[in-house]
């Protein structure tokens, strides 16, 4: 059974042009995953909800789509380099979809298998995807008629692969020098496709995972399955196959295109895209255009969902498949259509076998795995992977001899065991087993809902913007994750966004004015906004001379740029000249500019202003613990920090309370230490400042604050030329209108105002600021 | 002669409400200077050039104006707190005016005396200021007829003074509690005015400075002077006086206003403003409105130009006058008009006296100086001035007994002495003496022309913008000098500007993209701009794995944010894996992100892009010296640094070459030390980088570079969303068009691109970038 060509390849892999030393470049090819799956009600029946409008317009949505049926999700990753990156996107879209269907769709589930577990008695009731494009809808109606709706409900993973174009370009001269890059590329993809079709049965053996199917499942071409179980119903004759009469050659691109066109012309296919094969050449709307404009990438469609994995494919299998594809490049070229056809037959055999049946093509399998091992070792060496790739292959190698270790094998073992315990046939337990997995996966999708799964390396606020972008179908490019810098594109309109709300909506100069406390106060005061009285000084002498000019009893002396409260002196009673000068010296030790500011009593509130509108208001309170009469301060801090919402570095909505120098200083001022035991109910402050970043909490006050102060906040932002602005006000009584000037003061204005405190206030209503930012940037996008 | 009231004040100063302890607040009152002077040809005759259009539109120009004649400049400071600040503005406007009249007006001069030195034979030929407002022009024509043109050519300093309004507000309850702030303020200014008029003769004694006058000078009211010399022709009867019949009471504001209105009604005055007095109440268009809306400030008009000072008044005299004004507040109130009239007569006597004549009012003068001394000492104490104010007063005190030490006294002494040597009458030497001073002052005005005088605390680029703003009549507010942050206003339209070109014309996000090398390259590359090939890495492992993927022979490994070239490795030949990893380790020691960048050979050019236009292009060359065969490297550096254009900290157009660690490292790589003696003609580099800030020089290439590269620079700025952008290109041959991609690469894009290298290139044509920035911000302002 082993092909002659493969035998030749045992000892050394070769390719007419690529060499093993090019493997790093080849590994640096992009992949993209499309994962289909069904939305179900809790009882396992198909969802009756339409594809949610929360997921934007289907014509513009790159990430969350429908396939054949309206209840058939298609979750799509952009082209990425690594399995890890692909998983990142899948985990994000699964989270967002599950969130919508949990809250909006009566707690729906995502079915983890490729084969449906339950079909309606009347399969004609299955709802075709409600696409805006009439042709798309009509095409689906045609498919339903010719192949039957149940076949169309089969779900799988499509694995897209683009050979690193830089490498092709570099090597093109080494190919036939009479050929263009386009011709070389087409040739490469065609030979890759043929080899893949010939040997893909091995992947079906390892990864096939659709051993059972709904009992009323049937196909128009082959009727209902006679078998109760097999490795993969989806990849068997009961899967989605064109009529056997449709004969397509892979001998050359010209032959392939001509055959497809012939099949359409003679009515075997309605449209070119009706051709369903495990390999598809992509990049042009019409196949004929591939010849003229070139194949851009190749799509492999033969993967069942791995139901054990919440995302339908594991990270290692994603890598294993890529390794398999690269190996195909190095195998001698399968040339004849007969060999391709042989591969198709072998794949059907493997799919139709029972999951525990011994591999019938062991010798060829061993050779293929040997070839992969050569590739794996070379990659391990070049990519410094410490045997990672080799392990992937050797792990699969033992499955050659142990079908029970393959995915289908494991599934059947477990399902049979559970069914046996319940004294029923395994196939009757399929639905319950699948629903159980779906519920487990749902928990995975919904954990840490303040994060966007996969994007935890961003600040929470950026994660929030990303959530709404993905949902609305706004395309995302990660320009610099380390700086939370992203590019968003909707329908050709692009916007760069840093830290969630630093955008093209604000000017450069407004940033520098707000960054500068002196300038902020001056600009606001010039425009009639009340700011704390005071002055700024650039020398000690100048500041000392100002002493007789101080017009207020209570005031603060502080460096222009305060870090951690260093250098600040607060005078609650008017000081002596000597004490004043001492405070100046302390402040000038921290900065070249020192501010004198009248102390304003009242509540400090943060107004989040966007586009002349107050979107949210928070009161922040300093890090604090409350005594219980027996725990030490240190223990009380530990309890507070055990809150799962607390963490560090803007990656969690609340920040841990520290036990450092500044906290201990604050304790000292209350005659306490970390080891003191406060009385029950005694509030102990760990910080003077109320920043969330030092353990403080936020209380939403948006609906409680009088409009007068909102007006002041909006005006302040306007005078500063700011679109996004965090205005900090001190207010005597925020529920009452402004009667006299002294009722309020603007103490600071912040560019890039924190969203987190409003998205996840410790107390009170959350405010959807990430969505609000996107809505202003993309008024044309579906964000309502 | 000593008034009874003054006698009472000898022992202790008092005011009904203010106390000596309020002096700091009073000292914190604002002053503003208006300085008139004549523009002259080199021979001393009046300029025939009109007021230059370079100084903008007269209706919008707050700093550079004309008075009566078109050749009569009026240079105006904004309200400021200190003499130093006033001088800052005067030195700036004098510099700018002299610059214009030197380059555009055949080397004109600014006449330093209040009295003209030369009048045309036909004084009717003197050209009245060509004001747009017809009424203003007609009014001047009327003045010329009634008073004669020569009188109107007398120049002086007007000293505006506003009592600290915060202090009045604080004290208002202590005044008559039935009075409003406005009434109290009016009352304060009226009593200040009366006291000032009564005692101003003392200032005329110290500061009078118009001892000679053009020989054909004459007045309509008093004819030609009979005297050849006096202390001040300007303040004598030969000055600008209304008809003696115009009698105005200062007893109350109502009385004052009624009298003025009466004089207008009966035709003694054409307009209210024709009233010429040494004290003028300001703040309203019509005097009647002062009663209703309040006096805003007071103007003292009795100061002759001090010809010894380039700006017509010394810093210490500016302070002395303020001290005198404050003392007037503390003297008992002069109430009767007779006393005011007495003051007028005494002032005329002092003005008409010969400059060396003994003071006729010595006793009153001593008492006044004693009173000033009390004020000075209190201020010295409160303002920690180490006797500065006391010294001002004691210095003047001795002049009471030594008229030859007064300004007029010194002038006459010198002029007489010089005239004697030339054997001619002193009055005949007046013109030559004045012209000589004018030429000396011109040198002062024009020194360091890369600076804006008085504003040297700003970066050169900001000074350049300020120059053009002042010239165009754009109002300036200094928001934060330490950060080069200014507010410009023209005709109600305001713009904030930081560091010369960070403005509202750029977006916040473009700043963050350009600040980030990774993001800049990514955005440019996405848009088809060629950037050096490469990649960025956030971990050593990731970077190490990239080794086999490096597609280029020569490349650089560097930290994302390079400081002083630390952490950079340059590979001119392809390295071993080991060497590559070593370079990574060095780079990761400096930053969390490391860049790999293909090395691009060629010339590095900086394109200064503004508003889709290339305004300037510079080539920068690294700090270097050229050997002379006998000097050491260290000595050669000293020679280069002796260039007056070199300095430090962006305050001079070129920066000194250092002798620090990095320069020494650079020498080591050339097998040299600071003590080596390079051969004649040998070029020694002190830096690898070509930044001006490390001693490099710039060569203007704007007109030599092919348009293709300008297009690339403009497109780069567009893709980055930048209005102001410094695009750095490496170009193979910048005179040739782009033939293939490899001909260029954009290596960096900079927000806030340096102007200095283009304003003051070491070689080649200067480019007016400060003006260009303002022109875009204020298209409505006269900047052409």
Number of separate helices of chain A: 26
CATH topology of one domain in chain A: Creatine Kinase, Chain A, domain 2
Strand residue content of chain A: 15-25%
Number of strands of chain A: 23
| Alpha-carbon Rg of chain A, integer | 33 Å
Average pLDDT of chain A, rounded to a whole number, is 93
Helix and strand content put the structural class of chain A at: alpha+beta
| Global morphology of chain A | elongated
Proportion in helices of chain A: 25-40%
End-to-end Cα distance of chain A, whole Å, is 60 Å
Largest interface (C-beta under 8 Å): A-B, 51 and 50 residues
Q: Briefly, what is this?
A:
The structure is a homodimer of 784-residue chains. The first copy, chain A, is of the alpha+beta class.
Q: Can you offer a commentary on this structure?
A:
Two copies of one chain form a homodimer. Helix content of chain A is 38%, strand content 15%. Chain A has 784 residues and is an alpha+beta fold. In chain A, strands 1, 2, 3, 4, 5, 6 and 7 form a seven-stranded antiparallel beta sheet that branches. In chain A, α3 crosses α16 and α17 packs across α26. The longest helix of chain A is centred in the first third of the chain and has 21 residues. The first copy, chain A, is elongated, with a radius of gyration of 33 Å. Chain A starts with a helix and ends in a 7-residue tail after the last helix.
